[in-house]
Amino acid sequence: MGFRNSQWKTATVLSVVAFTSFASVSAGSGASFQPFTSFAHMRNDSTQTLTWFTDVNWWTMGKWNTDPNTVEGYITKKFGISFEFNVPAQDADTKLHLMLVSGKLPDIISLQDGTTEQELIKSGKVWNLEEFFKKYDPTALTDGTFPPDLVKLEKQTFGGFYSVPSWASTPDMVKKYPPAQKDHLYSANQAVIYNEHIMKQAGLKLADLKTEDGLLKALQKVKSMHLTYKGAPVIPLQIDNSNQWYGSTVQALAQMFGAMPVDQKGNYRDLILSPEMKHAIDFLFKAAQMGALDRSQITLDTNGTNNVVRSGRVFCFIGNTANPHPETMWQTDPTETWVSPGPLLSNPYRRPTFGHAQYGLGWTQTYVSKSVQNPQIVAKWMHWMYSYDGEVLTNYGFAGKDYTVKNGLIYPTAQAKKYPSNYWETTGLGAFWFFNNGPFFSHVSPPPSDESGKMVQQFKSAWPSSPLTYVYDSTPLQMPATLIPPGSQLFQIQQQIRQYEETQVAKMIFAPDAKTENQIYQQTIAQLHKMGLDQLQAVYNQQFHKQEQAFGEHLKGINP
């Protein structure tokens, strides 16, 4: 499946307590935090309230805070705007579709679902941001905030520069914001991590937990010991939530076992067809068979999984570590420390792989409705949010109160370290990651200084930065959102395959026995071919080779 629209997209929640490396005001970046400038004079009425819609259902923002000593209040004072948030708990795509039909769109729309994005663009009811900025704030396109190669990548992916990406990265962006630390160049939110206080209870060492065989033995041991934590039974293995388990657990594990979406001949191949994907499924099946993994885990929503992991009774978590933020548990209980073994190594051994895109559009995309009032103010606001000054203020707060500057880097104050984990919901500090610039954070972050920061860095770098891992440029594998038009026959095939694949993999993992698991796998592969997987792969493969030429890359799988 195309990576841009897959469940493989990472979700990074940036609350203040998750930051142990704060941004810098770096003279070398050519930018510095500017004195307060208000754009409210461009409006004739009082503060304008805009609506902000997203399909990220755990973005639980509170009522807009107008206190000028908060991030939200600063935005109101500077731009004369505030926001009401529309965050559906479920069926966000359906609700946005109904809004499109009614002609009453929210002012700002942040999406993670590629299909919904295509529908929105096709409607013609959102701005092409190149036209938008040229008309209302031309400097946004000339001062490096939205560099040419980012605009070009948006055009290649969506057919136009329609949205502001979160966590994007391009060579021009990296050139503007080169990384401050050279020893952790690659990172990922997906990881295998272990709770060290349960390791101690079970008499386990990290050396015991680096391979799939070692982990399976450990899961059996933890299960048989009937360990408890604060009166509740220890959960040997927790996988990710209902929206992310397939991408952040199964596909991530498959890549640790050596899978690539390219075969050894250099042609595109869906991960489900790789032997390493079957190997990852087999591993999870074995864990389920011994009672270390429960099917109910894949029915939990994001908050449900987060609460389980943060309860302190999970021994091993495989998934997106940026959602539960287990490292923050250390701040209230010093015994709550976690560690990653790096890539979990398969038996038989296959070299782990990791795709790092030099050109990537990250996670979400944020759009502007053509019906928005005072578009000139919104243009200034969006430009500022993605600028150096906006990134500093929205993510790190106010100098002196929230951070101090040393050698061009920003460090949290003692007060900032004590902010509660939901501080972002009521103040906006660290909440607006829809506008986060990936290279900016690598450029401005000092090495972590406390235990939680060190844990985060270790989680995220242990797999992709391991000397055992084969890192390749996955840029050519990112399929344009416009490649398969919504409503087309191929689009229907794509959607049906995606849903069927996930449903069948769940059946395999929780099959009653190995014979049934293998039968389901064989039946699934056969059915996928009947459903049109070969036709879909042919389209992806043709586009993949075009993009290889465009980006000067030539990829081949390194494992069978």
Q: Would you give an account of this structure?
A:
Keywords: Signal. Residues 1-27 form the signal peptide. This is Aldouronate transport system substrate-binding protein. With 560 residues, the protein is of the alpha/beta class. It contains 20 helices and 15 strands. The protein has helices spanning 71-79, 92-102, 114-123, 129-136, 148-158, 171-176, 196-202, 212-225, 245-256, 275-289, 302-309, 375-386, 388-396, 414-417, 423-427, 438-444, 451-462, 489-509, 514-531, 533-551, and strands at residues 48-54, 81-86, 108-111, 164-165, 190-195, 228-229, 232-233, 235-239, 314-320, 338-339, 353-356, 365-368, 403-406, 409-412, 470-473. Strands 2-1-3-12-4 form a five-stranded mixed beta sheet, sandwiched between helices. A four-stranded mixed beta sheet has the order 8-9-5-10. It has a two-stranded antiparallel sheet with strand order 6-7. The longest helix is centred in the last third of the chain and has 21 residues, at 489-509. The two termini are 19 Å apart. The model is unreliable at 1-36 (pLDDT under 50).
